[in-house]
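Hello Y.,

Per our agreement to keep a running log of every chain we model this quarter, I'm adding this entry. I've kept the format consistent with earlier entries: sequence first, then predicted structure.
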Amino acid sequence: MKRALPFLLLPLLLAAAPVLAQQQAQYSQYMNNNYILNPGTTGVEDYIDVKFSYRTQWTGLEGAPKTYYASASSSLGKWRSTSKRTIRDRRRPFHAIGGLVYRDETGPTSRTGAYASYAYNLVLRPDLRVALGLSAGMQQFAVDGQKLRFFDPTTQAGSASSQVLDGSVGLWLYSSRFYLGLSGAQLLGNQLNFSYGPGLQGEGAPGNTLKRHYFATGGVRLPLNDDWSLVPSVLVKAVNPAPLSVDVNAKLKYQDLLWIGASWRAFDSAVAIVGLSYEQFTLGYSYDAGLSELAGYHGGSHEVLLGLRLKKKTQVVCANRFW
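Predicted structure for the entry above:
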């Protein structure tokens, strides 16, 4: 029984995740890269948009989450490669593609994913577009037995992993003044299939099913004068059985150079954000101060975002300088 115990604990670790929190990684600077939540934003900029991010959550707490990701997206079509576009050109729909890779580590568990996305952008008015995006890829969930700790030091646990296909869908309505988005992640709802040894199969165990996540977001740009603008936004996240999560954000921007902002994640954390853009580079930093019962046990969360704008051309209606 002692030898079987660590194997039996593996599905319990995974089962606890959807009960305590959402399965998707937590981000604080998603408003600077909505692509990580909504494939409908694929290629909305008139350049190749590349982002790198690192997040360490609940610093000082052993086994706390750490998340890394890299994303890239771009529109397609030679008609957008010149500044001498006609009105007809501006009203043409266009296609876009992108990709995302990430790794999320929490204690002995890890999640690694790779996705490719496609979006179709349709012009409703000269300054209003709507995009439908699809994302498909694979996730790998793993448990590192060497990182498990037991009261009996002689007890050893094995490692296990499971790979599943995954898919997301997103709708994105945007202009130079506002944006609205709806998206769903882990829509296939696949089950993880862990094998812990002879006669110990994890397939179909409670909690081993990927939960569908739904996101609704919206923001508006409010010009204060020629140089300053305020961008309030909101994000609502829903996944069963976790409670509804609401983020309220505000970002104050100076031209296309500097911004400061703040977010309030209901009953969880308060976030301070600062960033700057210089030529093709963007750098953002955020700090989360905990507001939950766990706040007294950690030193907050840090997130760094680096962006590259490659082959930047004349801006379309949806540029980072607006939001």
